[in-house]
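Loading example: each entry is read as two labelled lines plus one structure line.
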Amino acid sequence: MVAASGLSKRVATAAGPLDILADIDLQIHAGEAVAIVGVSGSGKSTLLGLLAGLDLPSSGDVRLAGHHMNALDEDGRAQVRGELVGFVFQSFQLLSGLTALENVMLPLELANTSAPRLQATGLLERVGLAERLTHYPKQLSGGEQQRVAIARAFSMQPAILFADEPTGNLDSSTGETIIDLLFELNHEHHATLVLVTHDEALAGRCERRIRLEAGRVVEPDGTA
Amino acid sequence: MNRVTRWRLAMRLLARDWRAGELRILGAAIVIAVAASTAIGFFTDRLGRGMINQSADFLGADLVLESPRPVRTQWLAEARDTGLRTSETLEFSSVLVVGDRLQLASVRAVDAGFPLRGRLRTAAGPFLTDAEDVTTPAAGEAWAAPRLLTRLGLNSGDTLAVGKQSLVIAKVLTFEPGEAGSPFGLAPRLLMNLADVPATGVVQPGSRLTYHYLFAGSEQDIARYRGWLKSRLGPSHRLVGVQEGRRAVGTALERAERFLGLAVMAAIVLAGVAIAMAARRYSERHFDMSAMLRCLGATQRDLLELYLAQLLVLGLLASAAGCLLGWLAQQGLLVLLADLLPMAPSAPRAWPLLAGLFTGLVVLAGFALPPVLRLKRVPPLRVLRRDLSPLPGNAWLVYGAAVTAVVLLMWRYTDNAKLTLAALAGGAAALVVLGVLGFVLLALGRRLHTRVGVAWRFGLNNLWRRRRTSVSQILAFGLALMAMAVIALVRSDLLTTWESQLPVDVPNHFAINILPDQVEAVRGFMDAREVPTTQIYPMVRGRLVSINDEPVRQAVTKEAQSDNALNRELNFTWTTELQEDNRIVNGRWWRSGDSGRPLVSVESKLAERLGIELDDELGFTVGDERFSARVASIRSVQWDSFRPNFYMVFPPAVIERFPATYMTSFYLPPGDKPMLIELVRNYPALTVLEMDLIIAQVERIFRQVTLAVEYVLLFVLLAGFAVLFAALQASLDERLYEGALLRALGASRRQLRSGHLAEFITLGALAGLVAAIGTECIAWVLYSQVLHFDYSFKWPVWVAAPLLGAVLIGAAGYRGTRPVVERSPALLLREG
């Protein structure tokens, strides 16, 4: 489902070129749940960005459900993301100008699906926010905002879900509830899950973990 | 995303941003630009059409021949033979006396055919509804303008006398076709029958009269007759067709339109700056949303359309509001100038609204589009890394778009490429100079910051830190304050100069058209009443036609060809004594043997304009007779002394053979005015010009016109406030965060508020200082080069402008930064 070969990301800094990621090869199969772990600055988020087609590598190749992401232009990658990918972020990334319902409807509307309101309402009910449909993000708690983000991520029935530190901005009990919800929905939708975290406990709930250290994979196939 | 979805989403986001106050400045700036543009558009369009489109009606004919004397009957016979209809009128000034009131009237005697084009309009009484009237005053009748009746306390049916002839006021005249040359006519009109003129005794040899011969017919016949007549015209004749009439009216209006247009441009450019600032902030606040939308699969095209739709709808809504405001504002302008307008303005048309919308969209495209275009280039990776921003817009694109918009609009307003370029270059130069000045002042202010308290230090530091926006705000307000200060200054100085020129003993009345056989009697009349008069001078009207045997138009420079002195009759006189307020600057005054010698003394400014020098041989005509004289002296004249003065003064016995009337000036205290009635009754041909009243009227016109200009400048000031609030909004996030941090560190609300107050008071005072410096420079140039006033240091401006700036901007800035202390610091720090 997701494959990377020889993936590197090099950036220019004042002190000369810096390799953020070097020579990464990995395979993630359909339906698998994989955690990308490592300390701050190890390149986890950069790898997620490359795998999700949000950024282009300096060298190497990313295939997402058979699409060569490097070969596509930005609008082409946007189309692949719109059709196949869902995102959950640490900072929720809800559009403050839209209500909870409208936030969830947005990807459906972008893809011109029929009856987006009905689908979005169903999803929000599923994440326990039936009473919060017309609330704006500012009127919701952190946990509620992340539920809206999860509902949005699953609205398009994505083949792959990328989650970047989904509990990073939440207290531990709320975080746990959110993770339960995430895994439940992932299971229901048979989606592939790629989760970036520095929380080993959270990583433990995935089938496999990929550990990064200074931009290199150190435990390519190891299990916990 | 399909188009419907995009638009629906766009409108939802727009509504949300509007409710959250994100778009207020952007919207307000568009409203100001459009309102200014629409107001002036409506105003000039309504007046322009009122005056220009009715040019033929205004002229009362297709062609008018103007002459100070009756023309040969053969000319009129030729016109009738060509198939033209003709009509004849005679115009003169006369003082009308009723009981103890008197009023200078501009009398027009007409025949039954008048007017050939257009219609007279009359009413039964003053201020009653008027209607078109196809008749003309019958013999023994007069039709009077409402103003004349109110001044004289008369009503229709009453009787008044023109000279020795009594006339019954049959109707009230509300509109009269005629030459539309003077929109601000000073003397009200009286219309009478041509057949009654001889009985008035007003027409005497040498009287100031104007004959108008009106012609109407087919275009070809008019052209043929015009060709025939042209070769026969003498220098004192003037031929006015519909074209010339339109041009004469058009020029005055065009100038007004250009001036107002430039004021509007200043408002638009300032509003544009505010729009650019607000659009930049809008763009930056939408980076995250754009990145998220890209993440969710939106294409660049989706984003572009999403934002353009919002911009377009905002632009249209704000422009519509601006149009409405502009319409209200022009109504205000019309009310303000109601007394001055020669006629009711035409009904408003729709095009200024379209032009207003166009202005709004062009300004928006020029100033807001470049920052908004950045939004489509937001990298989707920003959802993971918030520090990623799209590349800043290409500077060429950003400034190019703004300059294109300004040039486009300015060209529309001035309709003149040269003026547009000159205004742009002048504006740019002024911006650079004032900008550098603002920067220097800011730097000087900063040097103070070690010597002031903590609040002021905080304020001054803020200004310096954001020095680019600070300078732009100083410029915006400096320009607005400067424009207003210059207008106010010129107004008050012109008025005080006029008033101070009328001290108690200076003549305040002219008596003209004194007949030769009445000179001694008038002198006796004045002496008997102990009215001090100046000398009584003879006055002969003639034209300057050649200089050193070369026709005058060829002899003078190109600029001087349009000099008024060449297009009308000048007043000549003869005297042995040099007038009290005249001074010989070159050559010599008459000696005892000069009497009868063909010599002339020329007024110095006229000589300078026409390039006349000592010993030049000047050719003149009086009536049909030519004669010449050698320039014996150049004379400076103090025109504002309110004494009789002349361009050309001859020695005795040179022009005495021509018909002359006499004139004098005298001082009359207001309480002695009734004497004028007696004077005019005794000598009906004599005309009294009440200079005190004329000056009062000119003052009133001037006050109203400058008031109208200041009214337009209000838009400039408003646009300045838009810039201030846009800059405030742009820095608000940063201010909120800093404020929260300072409060967390122990600063009190009061300290923060004092700091803000200090910052904006300083900003306003600096803007006022820039305005004062600019005003001083402009005033110096204006006074010494244009108005020829004595220039003095304008210290009140140096006090008033910084004070006004400090109060206005201090208050606005204080108000604008209120959220900084109102929001909870804990919340702010958590969000930041």
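The CA atoms of residues 581 and 638 of chain B lie 6 Å apart.
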